[in-house]
Structures are given as structure tokens and as C-alpha cells.
Amino acid sequence: MDTIIVGGGAAGLAAALTLGRARRSVLVFDTGEPCNRFAKNAHNVPGADGLSPREINAADRACLRAYDNVLIRDVRVESVRIADGVFVVETHGGSSVAPTLILATGVTDMVPLRPGFRECWGSTLLHCPFCHGFEFADAATAVIVAPDEARSLVARLSAWTHQLTVCTDGQPLDADDEALFAAVGVAVEHSGIRSIEHRDGIMTAVVFDDGQRLPASVAYGRFPMVVTGPLPEECDVERTPLGTIAVDHFGATSVHGLFAAGDCASTGIRSITESRSSGQRAAYGVFHTLLEQARQ
Ligand SMILES: Cc1cc2nc3c(=O)[nH]c(=O)nc-3n(C[C@H](O)[C@H](O)[C@H](O)COP(=O)(O)OP(=O)(O)OC[C@H]3O[C@@H](n4cnc5c(N)ncnc54)[C@H](O)[C@@H]3O)c2cc1C
Predict the structure, then answer these.
(1) CA of 247 to the centre of ligand 1 (A)
(2) Considering 221, 248, 275, which residue would you say is the last residue of a domain?
(3) 154 and 212 assigned to the same domain
(4) Ligand 1 site-directed mutation target among 271, 274, 280, most atoms within 8 Å of CB
(5) Residues 153 and 213 in one domain
(6) CB-ligand 1 contact for 275 (6 Å cutoff)
């Protein structure tokens, strides 16, 4: 194998396509749990707007069938180690070895365990207005966000709706922000949030600790996220201040031969198109590393 890719989401499959077409031998491992699996439809994806995440992933996989040099195994990578300059990848089925490796495992969103949050995640509790805001234009919208992020998120959301209520979930809001929101007609709720009221994931209200209800048909939530799985730790890669894997423009990490792409290496936009793009750039990085290794 020339390269092993851990993760067959948007980033991993884009990398596999580029390397497959470059006639490198590629082995992709995937557990089929992309972070967007909770959403019924994906949007803002050129050529696939409105398809389900599953349909988009299936189409990405279908392209790869044309390349005999690209194999996909639907199993979890349990561990990765570096031995004698090569990456040794362990699954329950055995070991695989390659001189280069791309981590494209995505991130896990730490959606609160409070009632209604997980049920609504991806359908009416959203991470991104560019992906799903159009479907909720002018809707009564709750903004569940840390106070220091409230001002910028509210400014952005005003492109989609002016019916906004900032929910600080019990945290104090800066006095300047409070005054600004009052001036532009954005309501603020300071109480802790007890739950989200919904019917089959369709939000009807945010419920506060004191029992008050804020009727809302959608909420945007900013929750912590962590890189999925233990592999970056095992490879001892450098991280960004956000905790994602630090990479250069071509996806190279601090470990020679190890690349990362997609959400797990993102410091900004999280989207399918962005992940495909970083997957492709990591593939170029791998390609050139393989050429260098062949010259030595
Ligand atoms: C709820 C939600 C809705 C979204 N909606 C949109 C949208 O409408 N439009 C848009 O452009 N973007 C959307 N996004 C963002 C977009 O889905 C992500 O940016 C994109 O999926 C990231 O691609 P990725 O390949 O980095 O990771 P993922 O798509 O998360 O894929 C990672 C893959 O790696 C696999 N994996 C992880 N660990 C292992 C392991 N150890 N062994 C084997 N496989 C492993 C996982 O099972 C998964 O299949 C949404 C995100 C969320 C959370």
C-alpha cells in the first residue's frame, strides 16, 4: 500500500479519489458514522444540494469503484503506530502497513445530554446557518451560545432571520452586548436551559430551569467538539489551539508521512465542500511525499 486513509467521509473519499487517479495504491478504513448523519438533508453542496448525507457519501464511494487500486474496508482502525518509518494500522481483522497515512476521522460534537438536545441535533438544533439556515428563514430562532461568541453569531444569523433570542444558559452577558442586542431588537434569556421541547426532533420550544418556555422552531448551538478517536494521540501529532490536528496547506502534520484532512484538521469552516478540498490537498501532499521517498 502507498497510503492508508482512516475515515471514509467527505475528506477521506476525496483524498482517495485523487490518489486513486494518481495510480497510488490506497486503503480506506471507515466505520460509516460521519458527523452529519443526524441531518436528513445536506445543503450548500454544489451538485448535490438537498441530497441526504448518506446519498452523497454513496455517490462519493461509487466514483471509487472505477479504480482497482483503491480499496475500502468498512471496519474501525483500533490503533496506529510508527515502526521503522512506516505506519502500522491495526483493525480486528489484522495489520496493514503503508509509508504514508491520512487521518480523516472527523470530529464528535459534544451535544449536551439534556432532554431534547440530541433528538433535535441536525434537524432543528443546528451547527451552521450556511448549511441549514435557508430552510428556517424568518423563523423564531434561539441562539444557544457562549456569551463571548454571541455578538458574531447574531450578526451572521441576521441574514436569515430577525426573530432571534440569545440564550446564555445561565452565563452572564457583556454589558455592551446586552445594550447592542436591546438596540437591534434581539431578545436575551439569561436562565439555564432545562430541555428542548420537540415532536420527533421538530423543536417547539426551549424550556428554562424556571419552567418558562420560549417558543422556537429552530436553535443554533455552539457546543464543544473533539477529534474522533485516539489515533492523533497515538501518533503524537501537534494540535491547534482548538484541539484539531495542526496541518500545513497540503495536510502535512508534525509527523513525517502523516497527513490529516477534513473536520479533524479544521480551524474554521466545517462543510462537505471544505472537507473535500482539504482531502484533495492532503492527497497532493501524500503524492509528493511518496515521490520523495522513491527518490531516496
Ligand atoms: C448535524 C450536522 C449537519 C451538517 N450539515 C451539513 C450540510 O448540510 N452541508 C455541509 O456542507 N456540511 C454539513 N455539515 C458539516 C459536514 O458534515 C462536515 O464538515 C463533513 O462531514 C466533514 O467531513 P470529514 O470527512 O472530515 O468527517 P466525517 O464526514 O465526519 O467522516 C469521518 C468518517 O471517519 C470515520 N471514522 C472515524 N474514526 C474511525 C476509525 N477509527 N476507523 C475507521 N473509520 C473511522 C467515521 O465513521 C466517518 O465515516 C454538517 C455537520 C453536522 C454535525
Answers:
(1) 18
(2) 221
(3) yes
(4) 271
(5) yes
(6) yes
Residue 53 and residue 59: Cα distance in Å, rounded? Answer: 10
* Ligand 1 close to Cβ of residue 151 (< 6 A): no
Chain center to CA of 168: 24
C-alpha dist (Å) from residue 215 to 92, 122, 129, 139, 181: 48, 19, 19, 11, 19
Q: How far is the CA of 53 from the centre of ligand 1 (A)?
A: 9
- What is the whole-number distance in angstroms between the Cα of residue 263 and the centre of ligand 1? 7
Q: What is the CATH number of the domain that holds 173?
A: 3.50.50.60
In whole angstroms, what is the distance from residue 85 CA to residue 214 CA? 57
Q: Do both 17 and 74 map to the same domain?
A: yes
Final residue in a domain of this structure, among 191, 221, 251:
221
Cβ–Cβ < 8 Å for 99, 2: yes
Same domain, 99 and 240: yes
Look up the domain containing 174 and give its range. Answer: 117-221
pLDDT in tens, the chain (296 residues): 999 999 999 999 999 999 999 999 999 999 999 999 999 999 999 999 999 999 999 999 999 999 999 999 999 999 999 998 899 999 998 999 999 999 999 999 999 999 999 999 999 999 999 999 999 999 999 999 988 889 999 999 999 999 999 999 999 999 999 999 999 999 999 999 999 999 999 999 999 999 999 999 999 998 999 999 888 888 889 999 999 999 999 999 999 999 999 999 988 899 999 999 999 999 999 999 999 998 88
The CB of 220 under 6 Å from ligand 1? The reply is no
